[in-house]
């Protein structure tokens, strides 16, 4: 059984070419602290209490990259559980200190599962 710990982050899509405008809105209007670094696919990250908000430019298409990310206690167990239920796993760019994979629900919604490496969170 998959053991969920918490919601880790949410990724929101923004229109192409709007990263600067999004950065201004989320940092200056909402007052969120930006998490510095080079994040996957040019995303910008912000801290909201104990979760992260990720924003990334995305062209509108059939399948969106928008997703919630759930931290689990044992990523390998989650992978095995989902594979046994014939759920296709997807992989993406690596993030330092985290292992992760994605699935799509029956409606095309993307869901991330992740586990922090020891001592990373």
Write the layout of secondary structure elements.
Elements: E1 4-14, H1 19-29, E2 33-35, E3 44-48, E4 51-57, E5 67-72, H2 75-84, E6 98-104, E7 110-116
Parallel strand pairs: 1-4, 5-7
Antiparallel strand pairs: 1-5, 2-3, 3-4, 6-7
CATH topology-level name: 2,3-Dihydroxybiphenyl 1,2-Dioxygenase, domain 1
> Mean of residue pLDDT?
89
Low-confidence stretches: none
The second-level CATH architecture is Roll
The named CATH superfamily: 2,3-Dihydroxybiphenyl 1,2-Dioxygenase, domain 1
Please give the largest β-sheet.
7 strands, mixed
**C-alpha end-to-end distance:** 23 Å
Structural class: alpha/beta
Under CATH at level 1, the class stands as Alpha Beta
How many helical stretches?
Answer: 2
Number of strands: 7
Count of folded domains: 1
- Helical fraction equals 10-25%
Q: Assess the beta-strand content as a share of residues.
A: 35-45%
The whole-angstrom Rg is: 15 Å
Q: Give the helices and strands as they follow along the chain.
A: EHEEEEHEE
Shape: globular
Spatial strand order of the main sheet: 2-3-4-1-5-7-6
Pfam families: Glyoxalase
Protein name: Phage portal protein
Organism: Spirosoma endbachense
Question: Would you give an account of this structure?
Answer:
The protein is α/β, with parallel strands linked by helices and 121 residues long. The chain has 2 helices and 7 strands. A 7-stranded mixed β-sheet has the order 2-3-4-1-5-7-6, covered by helices on one side. Strand 3 (44-48) and strand 4 form a beta hairpin. It comes from Spirosoma endbachense. This is Phage portal protein. Residues 6-116 form the VOC domain.
């Amino acid at each position: 059984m998959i053991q969920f710990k918490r919601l880790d982050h949410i990724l929101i899509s923004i229109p192409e070419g709007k990263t600067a405008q999004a950065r201004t809105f989320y940092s200056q209007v909402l007052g969120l602290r930006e998490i510095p670094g080079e994040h996957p696919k040019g995303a910008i990250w912000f801290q909201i209490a104990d979760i992260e908000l990720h924003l990334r430019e995305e062209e509108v298409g059939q399948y969106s990259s928008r997703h919630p990310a759930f931290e689990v206690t044992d990523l390998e167990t989650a992978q095995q559980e989902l594979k046994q239920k014939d759920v296709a796993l997807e992989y993406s760019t690596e993030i330092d200190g985290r292992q992760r994979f994605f699935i799509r629900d029956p409606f095309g919604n993307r869901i991330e599962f992740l586990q922090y490496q020891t001592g990373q969170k």
